[in-house]
Amino acid sequence: MQAQTAQEDAAPDAGQRPPRVAPLFEQPGVLTPRGTYVVEPAVQFAHSSSDRIAFAGYAMILTLFDPRIDVREVRRNSTVASLTARRGITNRFELEVRVPYVYRSDDIVSRDMVAGAVTDRVVQDSGKAIGDVELAARYQLNQGSLHRPYFVGGVRFKSRTGRDPFEAVTDCLVRCTEQNAAGTGLPSNLATGSGFYALEPNIAWFMPANPATFFGTVSYMHNFKRSNVNRKVLNGGSEPLGTITPPDSFGFNAGIGFALNDKVGLSVGYDHISVGRAKQNGQTLPNSLRLQLGTIMAGFSYRLDQRRTINVSIGGGLTRDAPDVGLMVRVPLAF
Q: Which residue intervals make up region (Disordered) (predicted)?
């Protein structure tokens, strides 16, 4: 959920200043003016509960590779504090870097099917560390106005600076995939990164239509596969997993915003992400699921002055796979 305060104003060469809206999504708007810096501290909280094990967001649960465990429920809380910096290179082109710090806690209710357990076991895990640093570039494709939309093309690169999910030591003694293996395969310390490089091209549109403003984004994220992946076990060794291909995802969102006055803006919108299935050694994992994450969102913004704005957005999951609730507070500062 990261849009720009620059979204609130047209680039100087566009000749018009579209209405200000409260940002909702991870999408660009009209870009940061040339020579301007924007520093944006933010805090994001999300809570989800599910009975599924799948790859979504920045975490991969390693029981994808262990069908012996029957996961009944996962209750997950995550808090991400981030600092984003943007620089307007020209009136149509900007660069961005985002550095997150992640704290996660999971309560996993599971049952070991091989051991014939008849009662559930609750495993509590947590983890905190730097997340995956992201780099982005955006270019305004046309000169919009009050009568035609702005289009902004962008590309985002996600690194692997966060704690790798395959770095965590599991509770298996030697191996997790053998039928007589001891342990659940659950990690002792949660990951704060996905463990995979990713590249996301996207295109955003922004249409002033006084008194409302329409906006949205279409994106596709490709996650690069990794070879010679190993899972750590308790005896200090590792269990080879081979080549892991994480799923790609397709996303789109759309919203409408209203400027109540020169300081206050409100927005509502819908965000949807479709995530494919993970593969191991070229074969689709049988317990990997295709995910549909749909979220309804509302946002509020208050302009403190010409350089400072407070943005608050809240989202509620509409599909089974989406987080139950998410809240984000951002304070972009322009220099």
A: 1-22
Q: CA torsion, points 290, 322, 127, 72, in degrees to nearest 10?
A: -70
The whole-angstrom separation of Cα 274 and Cα 293 is: 6
CB environment 137-149: b (16+ within 10 A), e (fewer):
ebbbeeebeeeeb
Confidence of residue 71 (pLDDT cuts 50, 70, 90): low
Query: How far apart, in whole angstroms, are the C-alpha atoms of residue 76 and residue 71?
Result: 13
pLDDT of residue 49: 84
Question: What is 5-334's CATH topology?
Answer: Lipocalin (2.40.128)
* SS3 readout for 274-303: EECCCEECCEECCCCCCEEEEEEEEEEEEE
13 φ, ψ (degrees, to nearest 5): -80, -5
The predicted-structure confidence for 197-208, as pLDDT tens digits, reads as follows: 999 999 999 888
Distance CA 114, CA 299 (A): 47
Q: How far apart are CA 58 and CA 330, in angstroms?
A: 20
Alpha-carbon distance of 121 to 199, in angstroms, equals 38
Q: What are phi and psi of 247, to 5 degrees?
A: -75, 150
Mean pLDDT of 166-178: 69
Q: Which two tokens stand for residue 302?
A: 């208050």
Rounded Cα gap, residues 276 and 157, in angstroms: 19
Buried b (16+ CB within 10 A) or exposed e, 158-169: bebbbbbbbebe
Residue linked to tokens 């949660």: 190
Tell me what pLDDT residue 1 has.
40
Q: What is the mean pLDDT of the chain?
A: 81
Q: Are 269 and 25 in contact (CB under 8 A)?
A: yes
Query: For tokens 């076990």, what's the residue?
Result: 233
Amino acid at 111: R
Bond preceding residue 211 cis, omega within 30 of 0: yes
At residue 321, the 3 state secondary structure works out as coil
Please state, in angstroms and rounded to a whole number, the distance separating the CA atoms of residues 60 and 54: 7
